[in-house]
Structure formats: C-alpha cells, structure tokens
Amino acid sequence: MHILVTGATGTLGRAVVPAFVRTGHEVRAFSRASHPGQDVEWVWGDLAWGKGVHGAVRGVDAIIHLATLARKGHRPDSVDLAGTRWLLDAAGEAGVPHLVYVSIVGADQAATGYLEDKLEAERLVRESGIGWTILRSTTFHQHLEVLLQELAAYPAIPLDRSIPWQPVCTSEVAACLIDLVAAGPERGVIEYGGPEIIGMEEVIRTWLRARHLHRLLLPMRYPGGRWAAQRAGWHVTDATPLGRISWREHLFPEPPEPSDDFAIEHTASPTSPATQPDLDPNSHVYGGDEGYERPTRL
Ligand SMILES: NC(=O)c1ccc[n+]([C@@H]2O[C@H](COP(=O)([O-])OP(=O)(O)OC[C@H]3O[C@@H](n4cnc5c(N)ncnc54)[C@H](OP(=O)(O)O)[C@@H]3O)[C@@H](O)[C@H]2O)c1
C-alpha cells in the first residue's frame, strides 16, 4: 500500500517509517525539513499552515497521522487541531480511504491542556467522513527518558511513589499500526500499552542504574492536575494485546542473536583481516581481492 506518514521524523515516526518500508509498503514521509532518502519519498510541508498537504495526500491508500507539537495549554492553532483539520480536508477531497490517528491513553479522561487538543483532534477524525482508526498509546520509552533527564539535571530527583507508568516500545507501536492499516478503517478507538505497570521509584532506579548515574531521591507528592491524572491511573490501560518489551529490557537490551549467516560472515577469506592481521581492520576493501568488502553486521 501507499502510505503517508506525518510526524515521520518524530520519536514514533522514526520507528514507523522503516517498519512500513520493511513490510513492503511505499512510504511518503511528511516533514517541515527536507530529507534525502532512497526507500522513502520525503515531501515538504507545514501542517500548522496547511502547506504541502494537498500534494502529500494525493494517491495514498492510508495516512498515519503522528505530527504533533506538544505545548502548554489548549491551542486552537496547534498542529494537532489546525493541522489535523487541514489534513482531513485534503484527505477527504483526495478520497483517501483510511486515516489512523495516534492519540494518548487517558486523553478522554484527563482532557486538559495538550490532552484537550488530542481529544478534540480525535473528534475531528471521527466526524470527518473518511475511514478512520484511532490508536491511543501509553508513554513511549524515549519520552519517559526525556522526562528523567530533566529531573536528573538536579542533584536530587523528586520521587512520587504513587505515580504509575506503562511505558511502551515505539517499534511495537509501529507494528500495531501496520496491523491497523492492514485491517482497514475500523472506526474504532484502540488502546495499546507496554507490558507492565511500574511505579515511579522503579522507573527512576532502573534508569539511574542503566545510565550509570547517582542521584538522591527526594520523596514528595507531585503537584498539579497533570500528575493527579497520572496518579489516578488514567494513562495506563488493561487493553490487550500489550507490548512485550519492558522498561528494563529497553534500558538493558540483550545483545543481538547471531544470525544464521554468522559462520559464513566470520569465515576468513584469504585476504580477510583474520588471515592478514597486519592490515588495518577498519579499512573496508582489502587489496588483492577485488570486490571483497568486509561484511557489515546490522
Ligand atoms: N511521546 C509519547 O510518549 C506519546 C505517547 C502516546 C501517544 N503519543 C502521540 O504519538 C504521536 C507521535 O508523537 P512523538 O512523540 O513521536 O512526537 P515528536 O517526537 O514530538 O515528533 C513530532 C513530529 O511532528 C512533526 N511536526 C511538528 N510540527 C509540525 C508541523 N507544523 N507540520 C508538520 N509536521 C510537524 C515533526 O516533524 P518535523 O519537525 O520533521 O516537521 C515531528 O516529526 C503524537 O500524536 C503524540 O501525541 C506520544
């Protein structure tokens, strides 16, 4: 299928674009910057102003709409609202059969600020007249790391033990999006979360260990409505299936399994570094064996 991905350069987009390419889809990626690319057709545009949108939606079978700009407060001119409107109008005119919008678990319960924009954008999608699916995800691993990096800027990290998280791996969200596109417009809201609900203390301690950092933890209760919603469990889900990659596995990834080609890759050719230890192991082409390139493992 021919797929348009908005927000293709973002945290989720960077997992979604290669996942769709790997599964044989033609991907058109939308961005405010220009990007070179062989496997992906990059198109320039700015959703906030509707620029480049009509050309971007032309001829696609589905749109994965990830573009967002999280700012404080409810913003009628936000990418999630104004941008979603531009996109839906253009998609409707072009006859695009399916748009998948990615939202956040709890957007319907804790609808304040940015989440108010997400919920309103969900409504625009549902009422657009084009086929739709909404995927509400829990927090991405990388997003949680950014939050922890901010907290770790101080000598002591404030710790609210009553805060639950359900972090999820973006490549698993990407796989879920591939399934949703294959299923076609279901006109349904689907929730997707990480494999476990873990407390803030475990989140912080595991992260500090993984990043070889030492900080004092300062027990306290985080103030404000955003944390009250998190404390109330509005941003976790018991929907199944869940992702499988835990916070710990994200932070301490297993080394990759050797592939079936391992033996072949490591069989020394007559001119390989193994048989000629004096050669520079970092040089890619070894003299005397034309065309021989050092195999590169992913
Ligand atoms: N982060 C989380 O933990 C989380 C959890 C659940 C759901 N979600 C949702 O998942 C989606 C993706 O989130 P993310 O974390 O991957 O976002 P992100 O990393 O902040 O990336 C935002 C993307 O939006 C694009 N964008 C921003 N302004 C734009 C504009 N005016 N026109 C066109 N594109 C624009 C950016 O592209 P360029 O800069 O290249 O233009 C970028 O690719 C969002 O809808 C978010 O609400 C996120």
TrEMBL record:
Pfam families: NAD_binding_10. Residues 256-298 are annotated as: Disordered. Transmembrane segments: none annotated. It comes from the Bacteria. Residues 7-142 form the NAD(P)-binding domain. This is SDR family oxidoreductase.
